[in-house]
Design brief:
Order of helices and strands: HHHHHH
Helix content: over 70%
Radius of gyration: 18 Å
Distance between the termini: 27 Å
Low-confidence stretches: none
Largest sheet: none
Shape: elongated
Number of strands: 0
Structural class: mainly alpha
CATH architecture: Up-down Bundle
Number of domains: 1
CATH class: Mainly Alpha
Strand content: under 5%
CATH topology: Alpha-lytic protease prodomain-like
């Protein structure tokens, strides 16, 4: 059984994990979009763009942790709802752009110069995000906090997207199969669409992120 002091320490850890997630996504977004553009890899560029959107979501999560630390029974406030709506719109715009560009690339037969960096970045992301998932779940379980546990499940979605990037980038780098980069991009679009839809659902209610 945790004491009040233990809970304060755990909330500090939870906030630290949220802050690290934001910083990591900023760096991942900058590196991935740059290398994706340079290597003409739409999957890597889209992955990096998604990371920037996750930063907005991360700000909402950090705010949520402070809110529930101060009042565990408090409901989602205007700041969080606004962040969710902005995040949802950004995800939908990203999905539209990625699908449109994927179809164009398939139509023109466009191929990336290389997807090597997609392999490297996705492996790093899988490792980092999985550590965050385990750590957040541990903190959420000790605090018996449904919002923090739900955030861990949201982070797990980033692991899935990293796996898609790894598979598409790896296959292209090994076999130079046509369209695989665009197919991987469509896979990323699927998860981005689901995240965008969930953001709007959460903004209208007090439903926890990825709680199902």
């Amino acid at each position: 059984m945790t004491t009040m002091t233990d809970n304060r320490k755990l909330y500090k850890v939870a906030f630290g994990l949220a802050a690290f997630t934001i910083i990591y996504n900023v760096l991942e977004g900058l590196i991935s979009t740059y290398l994706g553009f340079e290597d003409e890899s739409l999957a890597l560029f889209g992955f990096g763009s998604d990371s920037f959107i996750e930063v907005i979501s991360g700000l909402g999560i950090a705010h949520m942790i402070v809110r529930i630390q101060n009042n565990i029974d408090s409901k989602r406030d205007d700041f969080e709802r606004t962040a969710l709506k902005i995040t949802g719109v950004a995800f939908y715009i990203l999905v539209f752009g990625l699908i449109l560009t994927s179809v164009y690339n398939i139509w023109t037969g466009h191929r990336p110069i290389t997807t090597f960096w997609g392999v490297v970045i996705s492996i790093i992301s899988i490792i980092v995000m999985w550590i965050l998932v385990v750590w957040k779940r541990n903190v959420g379980t000790k605090l018996n906090s449904a919002p923090i546990l739900a955030d861990a499940n949201c982070t797990l979605v980033c692991v899935y997207m990293s796996i898609i990037l790894l598979i598409s980038s790896g296959i292209y780098e090994l076999f130079r199969l046509s369209y695989i980069d665009s197919i991987g991009t469509l896979g990323l679009s699927y998860f981005a669409f689901k995240e965008g839809k969930e953001c709007f659902e959460k903004a209208k209610s007090d439903k926890h992120c990825c709680s199902d």
